[in-house]
Every structure is written in C-alpha cells, then in structure tokens.
Amino acid sequence: MSGLQPENAGVGGIGETAEEKYGALAFDTALSTLVVVALYVVVKVSLDGFRQWRARISVLVVGSGPVGLTAALVAVRSGKVLKLTVLDERYRTALLCRPQQIALDPRSVKFLLGLGVDFDNMEGCWHNEHFFTRIGVFQEYLLSILEQKKQKVEIKVQLGTKFTEEYLQRILHNDWPRVIVVADGSCGDSCSVLGISSDYIVESCHAYGANATIERSDQRQVPTPEIRAHNLYFDLSAYGVEALREHKNPTAKSGFHLKIYGTFRNRYMALACPTSDTKMVRYLRQTANSSIMKNIFHESFNAYKTDIEPRLSDVTLHHMQCSRRLFEIQLSHRRISAAYIEGENVAVIVEGEAARVLNFDTGFGINLGMRGLESVGTFIYRTATAVDQNDVLEALSAKMQYSKQVAETFKQTGLTESMLSVVG
Ligand SMILES: Cc1cc2nc3c(=O)[nH]c(=O)nc-3n(C[C@H](O)[C@H](O)[C@H](O)COP(=O)(O)OP(=O)(O)OC[C@H]3O[C@@H](n4cnc5c(N)ncnc54)[C@H](O)[C@@H]3O)c2cc1C
C-alpha cells in the first residue's frame, strides 16, 4: 500500500498538471478569441465611424422658392453634402419679385436660427414672436448664405433652368445625385418627370373660408404685422338673412375669424369659421350673389385695418378681388411624398407646397413647408451613411411617415394656430 502511495501521488500530480495545462490552454484560447473579437469590433467601429464621417453625397434641389432654398441650407448644414445643385425655372429677377409677405411663426424661427439664419440681418419686422418679411427678401437672404458656403461645399445655383426629362437625361450616369429634393410649389410637375404619382389625399379641415386680395400700388411695400379679429357676425338682413338670433343662441358655434396680412401695397384677407349649419353660413356657402362676399370683406377691412392705411371706398373697391362665396377648407397632401429610383440609386423627397397645400390662404403657408423640412437633415445623414439599399429604403419610409404626420398635425391644430386663435 505504502509502496503505491508515491506512484498514486505521482499519477495525481501528472493529472493536475495536465488539467492545469488544459485550463491554461483554454484560458489562453478564450483570451485570444476575446482579444481578436474586441480588435475586430474596435476596427469595425472605427472603420464604420470613419466611413460615416467621410460619407458625402450629391444633392439636387428642384425649386428655389422659400422651401427649396431652406432645404438647400439644411443640406449644406448636414455636413454630408459634397455637391449641391439648386434649380429654378425662373430667372433671378422674376424669382425675387413676388409681392407676398411670409409670416414665420416661433417654431419656424427657431428652426431657421438653428440653420444659422440671422434675422437681424434681414429686412422684416417682429410681432408676437412672429417674423414678417417679403418672400423675395427671404429668398435673397438664403441665396446669399448659399453663396458664402461655396468655400466649403461645391454649390451650383442654376436659375432660369427648368427641371425636365431632358435635364435628367443630360446628367451623366455616374453624376446622378443621391438625393433629389422636389420643392417646385403647388403647380410644379417635377414629380411626374421622376415618375412619382400625382395622387393626392384631400381632407377637410372642418372649417369654411374665403380669401380676398387688395392691390394698391400707391401704398408701401414694407413688412407689416398681421391683424386678427374673432367672433365676428355680419348683418345680412338686407339679403333676408336674420342671423341675430343665432349668435345669441349659446349652443350656436362662435362666429367668423378674420385675418388681414401682407404689406400695405399687397393686402390679403382670410375669413374662416368652423363648419356649422347656421342660416348665415348656409347662405354664404350657397349664394350666387358675389357682391355679398365683397361687401363683407370691404366692411371688415375698414373696421380692422391699421389707422395709418387708407380706407377702401366705393371708388377704390375695384382694387379688391375675393372669393365669390364661402368654401370648405381642405388640405391636399401627396399620397407618395418619397420615392426610390432603383437603377440610379437615387432617393427623392417632396417638400413644401409640392407636397401639401391648402385651398385657402391663411398667410401661414410657409410654416407648413418648414415643418416638413425639420426631418430633411436626418434624412440626408441617413442616406449619405447608408450601407445598402435597405438603409435608404428605411430612411425614405421614415420620411414618408413624417410627412403624413405633418399633414395630420396641421389638420388638427394648424388652422386654429394660423387663423382661429387669439395671439399676443
Ligand atoms: C397670394 C398669396 C399670398 C400668400 N401670403 C402668404 C403669407 O402672407 N404668409 C405666408 O407664410 N405664406 C403666404 N403665402 C404662401 C407662400 O407663398 C407659400 O407657402 C410658399 O411660397 C411655398 O413655398 P414653396 O417653396 O413650397 O413653393 P414656391 O414658393 O411656389 O416655389 C416653387 C419654385 O419652384 C419653381 N419651379 C416650379 N417648377 C419648376 C421646374 N420644373 N424646374 C425648376 N423650378 C421649378 C418655381 O419657379 C418656384 O420658384 C401666400 C401665397 C400666395 C399665392
């Protein structure tokens, strides 16, 4: 027994050494695998990071309206654009001479400040945290910023150039942009050139409205704050409509909302009320007598205009044009607002009035366009850094979703914010 002990002890010793060796081997293997995996992850993450950091694409913006030019600025600010081309079929003078005034609401102002827009260096005026300026002034300012960015990004602004099939065909195969932003306004047809369906979803905003414009060339074209008036009732007894009892009725919906906006030279008016079936509303929706609406706008303008602008008289009334009757306010938005051109690997998005438009001018349209642009920076980043087609499709799908959300939100609150609410 005792003679066996050392042997057993010896066998035990050999066993322990082998186990230790296996253990050590296993540990070494695990450790080196871990190191290799960690190295792989580090290299991959660094390479991906480097690739993402380096990724730069070419972007084409169709339309140099306020939305197209802001989209161009978003593209430059994304840091992911190597080459930017901005088109407009109009030449510079025609592009910048539009008389309408735009009213940027606080959210649009914040968005534009984030893009580096300096409102102190733009002709305009502030009122109730809204910035009022002429559309041409805004466009000219954006064109000047793009001009300054030419040192960092290759930027081509091609005015007097229409986006057509021939234009597309002239682009060389390897020179196609990776992203096309269509912002050619409510009358543009660039989407059809790109094969995007012109199918619109038309939805009621649950309100009725009418618009009027007054053009007086002897008046000043300076930025002017808007005027809002609420709960208005009109005396239509001369037309046989007895409305007085209706508005004293507490169950009846509130009356009309009026907005006077634009410059003194180009005055615009919008009149709106939530849908209802009161006698007055029914009458104003159905009347064949267009002078009723004209009288309403005439009287309203004189009652609510600023003190320093002249009244409209029977003599100057011909300066005014207006809707013949009240109509239902509807928002039309594209069923397809983003698309992928497979062969060329191009992602197309539609923005501004080319994507969604009201049949009623609220003096607020520009803000609806700005809302859509809030997701363009992320979209460009995702497209530029996409590894494969799936990533691009996912970015497009998110963009479409966002566009739908913009329309949905406007339907719920847009009209109230722009017309029906008391500001200030
Ligand atoms: C009478 C009126 C009064 C308004 N008042 C106000 C107001 O007070 N406040 C406010 O916020 N908004 C107002 N608006 C709305 C505002 O003008 C619009 O919301 C805004 O212009 C929309 O911008 P956009 O860039 O989408 O389109 P647009 O301004 O229409 O720009 C589209 C551009 O695309 C170009 N284009 C079209 N087709 C092509 C093509 N194939 N190739 C190249 N270029 C092309 C056009 O020349 C145009 O310059 C008013 C609008 C009107 C009509």
Write a structural description:
Helices cover 42% and strands 23% of the residues. Mean pLDDT is 90; it is low at 1-12. It starts with a helix and ends with a helix. It has 424 residues and is α+β, with helices and mostly antiparallel strands. Helix 2 packs parallel to helix 5, helix 2 packs parallel to helix 11 and helix 12 (376-384) packs antiparallel against helix 13. It is elongated. Flavin-adenine dinucleotide is lined by residues 62-68, 87-90, 95, 100-103, 135, 162-163, 183-185, 188, 190, 261-262, 268, 352-353, 361, 363-366, 369. Keywords: Membrane, Transmembrane, Transmembrane helix. The chain crosses the membrane at residues 22-43, 55-76. This is FAD-binding domain-containing protein.
How is this fold's topology laid out?
Layout: H1 4-54, E1 57-62, H2 66-77, E2 81-88, H3 92-96, E3 101-104, H4 106-114, E4 125-127, E5 130-134, H5 135-148, E6 154-159, H6 165-170, E7 179-182, H7 190-193, E8 200-215, E9 227-232, H8 244-248, E10 256-262, E11 266-274, H9 279-286, H10 290-304, E12 320-322, E13 327-334, E14 338-341, E15 346-350, E16 356-358, H11 365-373, H12 376-384, H13 389-420
Parallel strand pairs: 1-2, 1-7, 2-6, 7-15
Antiparallel strand pairs: 3-5, 4-5, 8-11, 8-12, 8-13, 9-10, 10-11, 13-16, 14-15
Helix pairs in contact: 2-5, 2-11, 12-13
The structure holds flavin-adenine dinucleotide.
Protein name: FAD-binding domain-containing protein
Organism: Gambusia affinis (Western mosquitofish)
InterPro entries: FAD/NAD-bd_sf
